């Protein structure tokens, strides 16, 4: 019952916060320096087309009327039409979203698995050379500049060695070939994913390793670990079955939030690798004044992050019986 009340309270909070975000986005796009009408209209448009678009967007109406129309459109799922694609914004977003989810979910889950495993090993060998080298490696990879690492990956493994494609998500010659089967297409996508996944893996696994190591060191001081040792349990059993599951709780939070924030596609990663996802689309929309598409992308990111925070808190209650709301 307490958990139900907590979920209800959090849902109410999410609704209120999201309403504030909706309002802030509306004001940012309309109160930015310059004339919003001229920013949203392509100079190449004919006067008739420009006037039709202005009327369609309601830009001639008072700002409070625009705001009410904006809220109404959001509630009905109408995010407008992308200026560039000439299609509904929601359609463009759903076309790009699977690519972002595939890339970032794969890389973050792999990074979490490796980070948790190496983190518990490092903590178990605290003060030894293995711990030192693991910690240094984690710090270096976690703090490296992502675009620089991505460009190095492309230069070495794509340009010099020619092992992987430089950009994109598919090879047209494979996907347009009617004789190509599903296995060949899946392998083609996986081949294109190697470099961006490796780059994101290097950036993320270090933070998971450091969090797991720190949490593991605190967990090893708990009384139940001393009790397990007093019972004569093997060290490997104590580490893997008693200490590690409890120490992994902070990593669960970090992974959940990383997955949520990755919905923006990591604009830098997707831009460098020309990966057709939400992040690259968001950069394109902002740089080309495609305000409906940019606004829809920002709203999607905000909603996913808010929901992810709540889901992580609920998972905590299930993973750790000591936590009560």
In terms of topology, how is this protein built?
Layout: H1 2-31, H2 36-40, H3 47-57, H4 63-75, H5 89-124, H6 129-143, H7 146-160, H8 172-175, H9 182-219, H10 223-230, H11 235-247, H12 249-261, H13 267-272, H14 278-287, H15 291-319
Helix pairs in contact: 1-15, 5-6, 5-9, 5-12, 5-15, 6-9, 7-9, 9-11, 9-12, 10-11, 12-15, 14-15
- The CATH topology of the largest domain is MetI-like fold
- At the first level of CATH, what is the class of the largest domain? Mainly Alpha
Q: Give the uncertain stretches in residue-range form.
A: none
Alpha-beta content class: mainly alpha
Q: What is the CATH H-level superfamily of the largest domain?
A: MetI-like
Secondary-structure element sequence?
HHHHHHHHHHHHHHH
Helix content: over 70%
Q: What fraction strand?
A: under 5%
């Amino acid at each position: 019952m307490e958990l139900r009340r907590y979920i209800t309270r959090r849902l109410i909070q999410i609704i209120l916060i999201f309403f504030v975000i909706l309002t802030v986005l509306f004001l940012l796009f309309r109160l930015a320096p310059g004339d919003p009408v001229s920013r949203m209209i392509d100079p190449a448009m004919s006067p008739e087309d420009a006037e039709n678009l202005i009327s369609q967007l309601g830009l001639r109406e008072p700002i409070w009327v625009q705001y009410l129309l904006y809220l109404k459109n959001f509630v009905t799922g109408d995010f407008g039409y992308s200026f560039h694609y000439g299609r509904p914004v929601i359609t463009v977003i759903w076309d790009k979203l699977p690519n972002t989810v595939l890339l970032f979910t794969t890389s973050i889950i792999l990074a979490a698995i490796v980070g948790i495993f190496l983190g518990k090993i490092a903590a178990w060998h605290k003060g030894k050379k293995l711990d030192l080298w693991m910690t240094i490696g984690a710090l270096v990879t976690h703090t490296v500049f992502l675009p620089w690492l991505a460009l190095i990956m492309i230069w070495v493994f794509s340009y010099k060695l020619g092992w992987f494609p430089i950009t994109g998500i598919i090879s047209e010659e494979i996907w347009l070939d009617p004789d190509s089967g599903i296995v060949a297409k899946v392998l083609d996508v996986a081949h294109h994913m190697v470099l961006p996944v490796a780059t994101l893996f290097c950036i993320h696994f270090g933070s998971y390793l450091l969090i797991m190591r720190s949490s593991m060191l605190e967990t090893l001081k708990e009384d139940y670990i001393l009790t397990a040792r007093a019972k004569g349990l093997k060290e490997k059993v104590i580490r893997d079955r008693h200490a590690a599951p409890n120490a992994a709780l902070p990593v669960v939070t970090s992974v959940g939030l990383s997955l949520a924030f990755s919905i923006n596609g990591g604009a830098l990663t997707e831009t460098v690798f020309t990966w057709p996802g939400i992040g690259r689309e968001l950069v394109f929309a902002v740089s080309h004044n495609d305000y409906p598409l940019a606004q829809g992308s920002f709203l999607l990111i905000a909603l996913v992050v808010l929901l992810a925070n709540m889901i992580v808190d609920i998972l905590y209650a299930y993973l750790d019986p000591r936590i009560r709301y």
